[in-house]
Specification:
heterodimer, A: mainly alpha, two-stranded antiparallel ribbon, 26 helices, 4 strands, B: 103 residues, mainly alpha, Helix Hairpins, 77% helix
Chain lengths: 687, 103
């Protein structure tokens, strides 16, 4: 480590963060940046070792350290996003991890604007979920274990976004997979949870194989695993790469598909809801599943150089979006609706990446992280209130009983439905608008359909849960209670960005900026421009003039209209109690509708039979093939080897009778041999 | 003394055959050693015969014969020593009871 790091605080920390000078970075950051992820690592180690003894006080160390990590991350992000680290970002070298001649892997971190944006999402939501868990997990016997795992997850995720080397990214990648596995199977006495954790791990492994191969392909092509260096070389070499860019990009994308649960590797995410609800919020909605989006965004030059791979990304993304949305419309488990909604929103992000609208994808990643984290934590609060009931058919009329949860979840719902001026509208509208303008009208059209469905299933959720008549178990009914403050405060803290983040990040750019005569790009565009401009140029996306009263206005109108249609449809069927709008749900109309399209209804209810198809393909057919191969191995391969052995042994046993151990028998052998030799000599020589 | 080489070689052959038979047929270790001596001496006899009947082999034949005698003496010494050692262990001179080499 750099010796000047030892006491840098007094010397440089005061002025540097406030007045960044481009090109020179205060040495204090060489200490701060590693601290962001070392803090939760310490929390994990300490809690894992002595947490059991701390009992109900076990949350202090991990939560405290995550708050520390958050505070440092905010300082780092502020410096990065105000240009303190320059366009290339700031690199901190810890040590050389694997020195092996020409192959050298550094344990180094880099903070550029993309990383900074991810840091904001990960640390903020992570911190709020930690606080929320103090209340949610209060009565769990595995209290300390839960916080240890959460801290391990924070460390892994931060490692993933901070790493400046593919192999270190991969290490973080696997570690988040591990912590996800541990947390899904947190209630390890519950069989379904254990199965779900295994499923998540195995399905992720399929994608990880692709990612590992992708890293190897990058190494073969460039001879380095440094992210920025390798990307530069990959693009420079173009068609001269040993392994075509198209294949390399798709292999990397395979990893992203696994972690971000894109079709056909999406099957693990809904089952992951078996874990505790804070885990669903943190890992399976707000942060870990974004890793795939981050990966593709990070590798944007590679994808921009292989546009045909990008089209595949867009197609898979938008297909996942509509597939998952169609399933979410009929699920009855509150967390499953949100899980499919997450899949669908991740599909949006990949669609945006695929159309080349990288900034829009990251925009949606941020807003979605907040409002989906909010919705999940809210659903946890609901589940808590009705005593661990997750079936929405046994809820209803909860609005007045748990007002904080209701209000925050309503905010989240409006945000995700894309109704202005909440956050989701800005990011979703940008994705759809960019898709249309960049020449992907099919993505735009399917995206609009998905937007209708999104508003529909979210208001269905709210209608079934909070509005209308109560269908709660009469034994539970009188004991419904609002969650403690330690849970509701994080909800409100997440509700604020769910409302404001869209405006804040798009200001002073479109869509609101032009109203006030601004021609500047939005804040997030400004931040991410250094990261993405190369890729955007490569894709030849001409920056078109923003026309609020032209094409862009029409696109916004379309987005808002479809969101409203979806919402009103849900109101008609499932009721509404919102200010002047009052209406009872109509279960009989729902029944009539499902009876009219029985195939679609059953397909959606059974998740398009993906689990069954996988069961058939991999368990039954794959199992048969494996059994056949096992037979071949056992009978043919082993049989040959064992046969040779048995033959040798048997013939040896037979021949060993010759060895009598008597000298004279041997001597007779010698004499006979001599006679044969002499006789044959005479015969041959006599001829 | 016969003038014919064949006579000596026939004698040597008969002696060698007797030695061989003795080695294969006698069960007493001492007798077998004696049979070996007989075979060696049969060979020696043939060598001496070649030495005196073939031009140019006179000295070589003698030398080889002396060498064979020396080796035979050494072999007899070692052989007797081995037989004595085995006899002390197994209390028998009969070789067909020396069957430790069979399984």
């Amino acid at each position: 480590m750099n010796p000047t790091l030892v006491l840098p605080w007094l010397a440089t920390s005061t002025g540097a963060a406030a007045e960044p000078v481009v090109g020179t970075v205060a040495p204090v950051f060489d200490l701060l940046i590693p601290l962001v992820l070392i803090a939760p690592l310490i929390g994990f180690a300490v809690t894992a070792l002595i947490g059991r003894r701390l009992g109900k006080q076990a949350h202090w160390i991990p939560v405290g350290l995550v708050v520390v990590s958050w505070a440092i991350a905010m300082v780092v992000c502020f410096t990065a996003l105000t240009g303190g680290f320059g366009e290339e970002g700031h690199r901190v070298l810890l040590y050389e991890w694997i020195p092996a001649g020409g192959f050298s892997i550094d344990a180094a971190f880099v903070v550029d604007n993309l990383t900074a944006v991810l840091l904001i999402v990960v640390t903020t939501i992570g911190m709020l979920v930690h606080v929320y868990s103090i209340g949610y997990m209060a009565h769990d016997p595995g209290y300390w274990r839960f916080f240890a795992y959460l801290n391990l997850f924070m460390f892994s995720m931060l490692l993933l976004v901070l790493a400046d080397n593919w192999l270190v990214v991969f290490a973080g990648w696997e570690l988040v997979g591990l912590s996800s596995y541990l947390l899904i199977g947190f209630w390890y006495r519950k069989r379904s949870a254990v199965l779900a954790s295994k499923k998540a791990f195995i399905v992720n492994r399929v994608g990880d194989v692709g990612f590992a191969l992708g890293i190897m392909a990058i190494w073969v092509n460039t001879g380095t695993l440094d992210i920025r260096e390798s990307l530069r070389l990959l693009v420079e070499q173009g068609d001269a790469n040993t392994i075509p860019l198209f294949a390399t990009a798709l292999l990397v994308f395979a990893g992203a598909m696994g972690k971000s649960a894109q079709f056909p590797l999406h099957v693990w995410l809904p089952d992951a809801m078996e874990g505790p609800t804070p885990v669903s919020a943190l890992i399976h909605a707000a942060t870990m599943v974004n890793a795939g989006v981050y990966l593709v965004a990070r590798a944007n030059p590679l994808f921009a150089a292989a546009p045909s791979a990008l089209v595949i990304v867009a197609a898979i993304g938008i297909f996942t979006a509509i597939l998952a949305a169609s399933i979410a419309m009929t699920q009855t488990d509150i967390k499953r609706v949100l899980a499919y909604s997450t899949l669908s929103q991740l599909g949006y992000m990949f669609a945006a990446l695929g159309t080349g609208a990288f900034t829009a994808a990251i925009f949606h990643l941020m807003t979605h992280g907040f409002f989906k984290g909010l919705l999940f934590l809210g659903s946890g609060s609901v589940i808590h209130a009705v005593h661990e009931e997750q079936d929405m058919r046994r809820m209803g009329g909860l609005a007045s009983k748990i007002p904080h949860t209701y209000r925050t979840m309503l905010i989240g719902t409006i945000a995700i439905s894309g109704i202005p001026p909440l956050a989701g509208f800005f990011s979703k509208d940008e994705i759809l608008g960019e898709a249309f303008k960049l020449g992907f009208p099919w993505v735009w059209f399917i995206g609009l359909v998905v937007a209708i469905m999104t508003a529909f299933y979210m208001f269905r959720l709210i209608g079934l849960t909070f509005w209308g008549e109560s269908r709660v178990d009469p034994h539970v009914e009188p004991r419904i209670h609002e969650s403690p403050r330690v849970m509701t405060i994080p909800l409100w803290l997440l509700a604020i960005p769910s409302i404001l983040l869209g405006i804040a990040l798009s200001w002073p750019g479109p869509p609101l900026g032009p109203l006030f005569g601004s021609t500047e790009p939005g804040l997030l565009h400004h931040w991410l421009e250094p990261v993405f401009h190369g890729a955007v140029e490569q894709l030849h996306h001409a920056e078109s003039e923003y026309q609020l009263f032209g094409i862009d206005g029409a696109l916004i109108g379309a987005s808002v209209a479809v969101a409203a249609i979806g919402g009103v449809l849900a109101w008609r069927l499932f009721g509404v109690q919102l200010g002047p709008f009052r209406r009872q749900g109509r279960p009989e109309e729902v029944k009539a509708l499902t009876a009219r399209a029985p195939f679609l209804y059953r397909a959606s209810l059974n998740k398009w039979w993906f689990d069954e198809v996988n069961d058939l393909l991999f368990i039954r057919i794959g199992g048969r093939i494996a059994a056949g191969l096992w037979w071949f191995d056992r009978v043919i391969v082993d049989g040959t080897v064992n046969g040779i052995g048995a033959l040798t042994r048997r013939s040896g046993r037979g021949l060993s009778r010759v060895q009598t151990g008597r000298v004279q028998n041997y001597a007779l052998g010698i004499a006979l041999g001599l006679l044969v030799m002499a006789g044959s000599y005479l015969l041959l020589a006599g001829r | 003394m016969s003038d014919s080489l064949n006579a000596y070689l026939i004698l040597a052959g008969i002696l060698f055959a007797i030695g061989t038979f003795g080695f294969l047929a006698r069960r007493n270790a001492i007798s077998m050693l004696m049979s070996i001596e007989l075979m060696l001496n049969a060979v020696n006899l043939s060598i001496i015969a070649f030495g005196s009947f073939v031009e140019g082999l006179a000295t070589d034949g003698s030398v080889i014969a002396i060498m064979v005698m020396a080796v035979a003496a050494a072999e007899a010494t070692v052989g007797l020593a081995i037989v004595m050692a085995i006899y002390r262990n197994r209390r028998t001179p009969l070789v067909d009871e020396y069957d430790a080499m069979s399984q």
